[in-house]
Amino acid sequence: RKQVSREYGSPQLSKKRAGAHQPVTDPVDYEEYVSSHPPGAEPGPLRQLLEFPSDDLELLLQERECATIEPPVPEEETSCLESGKKHAALWSLRYQRYSTTQTPHNSERQREKQKGLVKQTFELDEAAIDRQDEQDDSKRHSVSLDDTPRGSWASSIFDLKNSTPDALLPSVLERTAAEDMDCRNAENRQQCRHADLLGLYPAPDEDEAVERCTIPEVPKEHSGQRIMVKCLSLRFEIEIEPIFGSLALYDVREKKKISEDFHFDLNSDQMKSLLRPHSPHVAISTLARSTIFSITYPSPDIFLVIKLEKVLQQGDIGECCEPYMVMKESDSTKHKEKLEKLRAQAEQMCTRLGRFRMPFAWTAIHLLNIVSSVGGLDRSDSDSDTERKGTWNERKKKGFERMSVGEDMCNFANFRPATLTVTNFFKQEGDRLSDEDLYKFLADMRRPSSVLRRLRPVTAQLKIDISPAPEAPHYCLSPELLHVKPYPDPRVRPTKEVLEFPARYVYTPHTTYRNLLYVYPQSVNFSSRQGSVRNIAVKVQFMAGEDPSQAMPVIFGKSSCAEFYKEAYTPVIYHNKSPEFYEEVKMKIPANLTDNHHLLFTFYHISCQPKQNTPLETPVGYTWIPLMQHGRLRTGSFSLPVSVEKPPPSYSVLTPDVQLPGMKWVDNHKGVFNVEVKAASSVHTQDPHLDKFFTLVYVLEEYSFPFRLKDVIITEANVEAELKASMGALKGALLDTCVRFLHQLMSKLILLIVHPPVIAGQIVNLGRAAFEAMALLVNQIHKNLEGNQDHHGRNSLLSSYIHYCFHLPTTEPVSPPYATLSRATARPSSLLLSRSKSLSNSNPDLASTPATPDEEVQRIIGSKLLHEELALQWVVSTSTVREASLQQAWFFFQLMVKSMSHHLFLSSRLDMPRRQRFPDRFVDDIAALVCAISADIASRYHKVKEQMHAYLCLNQYLLAFFLNDLLSLMDRGFVFNLIRSYYKQVRINNKLHTAQSPSSLTALRMDFIRIVCSHEHYVTLNLPCATLSPPASPSPSTSSTTSQSSAFSCHVQDQGVVSMFELSVPFRQQHFLSGLLLAELSLILEPDGEGVFFLHKKAISALHSLLCSHDADPRYTDPQVRSHIAQLYLPLIPIVMETLAQLHDFTDTSPQRVRHASVLVDDSDPDNGTISQSVAMAIAGSPLPNSKANPFTLPSVVSTCSLTTVNNSWYEYE
């Protein structure tokens, strides 16, 4: 050891390791070697090291979890529903759990391994305890024990006589041969021995774990912070008639209603009985009294608005509210006769006008007051109870004192539940019912001097509970009234989930079927209409045709009624010719809409007083909205003219704006009725660009020519140009719409690439246009949603689509026209197909002769494979498309890998030799692609600004992941050559730019090889059972160039054994990945090199992580297997020995030198003839007692790696 210390104490004795500087060697022909060395030729446990397991790749069909008991998809099928009905095809590598990409060796895992270890107690520790006890006893004695550590002779005799005798050990007196004793000691040493040596050492540095991959989350419907509101009771001073309520959330700042309405009925059974003739069948879903709101964007400006309605009666709102504002419960005896009269009048109105409602009163709750007044969960119970008492106004006053809180306090998912008693309601005003008026009222409520406070309130007591919603509430109904799991008993009163209308865009794809329509009648102006048109009610119907019997029962019921109705009525404003409305009509529309589907609005005058020969309802006007126009769902705000007479036949295909002959219109055909239509649909995009694209794809699939699309007639002659133009226009679509329909959009683009349509016998090649649209769309999503990226820059929405939702289109064409289009033309398809063969450049088998023209069509269509087309289009792409695809290379890499794996599995090619799995043209495209990307990364790294370096690093990481995946699918020798090509490109550019940044690309190479080496079959890829023949002449290697002075090689005489420790050309050829890793390590640790500390850290961390992975891998527990694995790292020993000066300075103890060498504080004495304890423990990988450690103990780590290698390789020489 003294000799080692002197020889390597000086950096001048370390020489360059020429092997590390040489170009990357050509790897061995892996597939040729494996075929000539079948696994059966190797006996015992080494057999598993020769080839990948036969069950390595598996394709799992995972049924998509449905949140509801009933399937949300209706019976009718549309193309937008396909993704909701398919299983998720997951490509799985069965042994990937052994890779460090998904199973990190972190501190938590190390602690789990160390839990079962027995605490070791050594004699030195016991002696220290004894000495401490003796020092305590010395205080009671006059004689000090410091001079005699084991105590005086007298005390020893005393202790000996009073001690309990130990058990006899007869074996000590027996004569035992030295050989037997050695064998027994060897056996004892193996007992309770921890097999995972590195598991006892601190975990690898997680900062350098660039190979770590996170599995994307399963796509699911968006849900914000959820609050539950329970309506407990509603009481007035007098009870004379049924009162109905509704809840909704409003954001005052955004001036937007952010939830649909929730209707509740808290009337007594006596009051409900008054309306029983109008609602004989009450659905249990309409009996809900609790609801769950979702809030995506919490804000201090959100209010819970409560509106009350009553049965229509004669008189305006003020007159109807007067009894509730004047009469008290305590005065019931005083006003007994008047109350009886009011009850009789109410009963009469319920019998006659029970279908109609009128506005009554309203109030609002500022949700921020609930959160801030009630307090978070960390507040004391006493404070919370104090603030929960008192009236709502008192709590609101306390809330005004906290109005300075911002949005950071609006945590609606974590607050203490509160029970509120709302006592003050404001009567509705007939001329101020619009949402704009409501926003003004809500803004005024937040002011201390609110105008509303000066108004006389309607006295009532509404008790409600507000609390954070539980994770999985029982007995819950979705907005479509489907039973959400768990739902143990269908007879229990349900809780309704209320659909959210987010205040701003939410970028989440649709994952479940939803097709809801919301109709909001806003106002109508009949002031110019003569006659008694004053009590106006609007009947809303969803019509499948023009006959009255074709009204569809798709309108959701409100409370204590049937589940669905064929019509809905707006509340009536008494004696008002220009009423405003706040009604929300919710519909569950069918998936397949035709041109005949429309909304029909019928305006009625309601006679509140019974008169002879006067009907209850008198129609006074009609208007309508055709829902489908040019294949698009019509939504938005409409100002419609109203017809006095019934619409004529065939009216539904026209809009009311068309002046039909012979029809009379209110106010000379002006727009007198304002209505807004909104949709929450996973079927209808409501974006013109997406609608046009999907419509044209539908036209092609159904082959429905000619087709009118707005002002253009789509025919066979122009459909190709129109479809290409629509794909180019997708970049103009709203981003949130593209994200919501991301899965369907990607599926259609992939379909056009894989199954190009046939028009008039001519194959239309849309692959290039589809690839360009896909590249631009992916790039747009990535750039605008930077917050949705993981640490490798992969967008989570796109990544989850590939992982869970992507599936190869069926090999059969999607629709029958694709297979039989040749019959639709007047000439044989084969006359045109000879020119079409060149369109599929990635297919090598087009030269074979088909039996029939139809078979030829089918063969060409079915021959296009997605991964081949993506590679081809990527290679030939130019300009902005090439730049976009390069910036989001990870997406196309992952898409190609999954397509390749699906193709191998579905075509039963997994059992074929790897060289025959893919055609040569595709292999050439992959090689060209990798070479181009490698050159681009290397050349642009020194040209772009530092801000772009991170982007290039991410691209390099993703290229490494791609090659890592290809090792499981393709010819492994071919992939090794791709790795070599990458190294060649990077090293060439590194030499050209060395003066600017000497270590710029070295770190890139180190991260690249670390990711590639994280493969779960890394050991097998290195051919650990391949024998290295001794070189004929000394080859440049890590140790051979210093063999004259190396203390390691001077003691070894066998040249064959020496070659195993050399980083020689044969070693790097046969153990390709291990050779690359060790060559990088050797180059970075070179004394004359320009490596810096962060490079040392990268290289040593990569090695440490790999060795930890081998040590913890249950596949490699056999000592013989571990020995062969250790041989992959034997050149590490001379690397460490020759870089001792880099790892530790044995001659200089100055702090500066120690820090420069990145080692622990050294306490060695240069004049001493032996190596110090610090150096010895540093080489052994043990922590130093009482020393201040460097944050990164790299010398200790690399020494431990060397020790592990020696320990595992010793099996061969025992």
UniProtKB/TrEMBL annotation:
GO terms assigned for molecular function: guanyl-nucleotide exchange factor activity
Domain C2 DOCK-type, residue spans: 514-680
Gene3D superfamilies xrefs: C2 domain
InterPro entries noted in UniProt: C2_Dock-C, C2_DOCK-type_domain, C2_domain_sf, DOCK, DOCK_C/D_N
Basic and acidic residues composition bias: residue spans: 378-395
Chain positions covered by the region annotation Disordered: 1-45, 128-148, 376-395, 835-855
A biological process from GO: small GTPase-mediated signal transduction
GO CC, any one term: cytosol
Superkingdom in the source lineage: Eukaryota
Biased composition (Low complexity): 835-844
Family statement drawn from the similarity comment of this UniProt entry: Belongs to the DOCK family.
Identification of the protein by name: Dedicator of cytokinesis protein 7-like
Organism: Sinocyclocheilus rhinocerous
Taxonomy of the source species: Eukaryota, Metazoa, Chordata, Craniata, Vertebrata
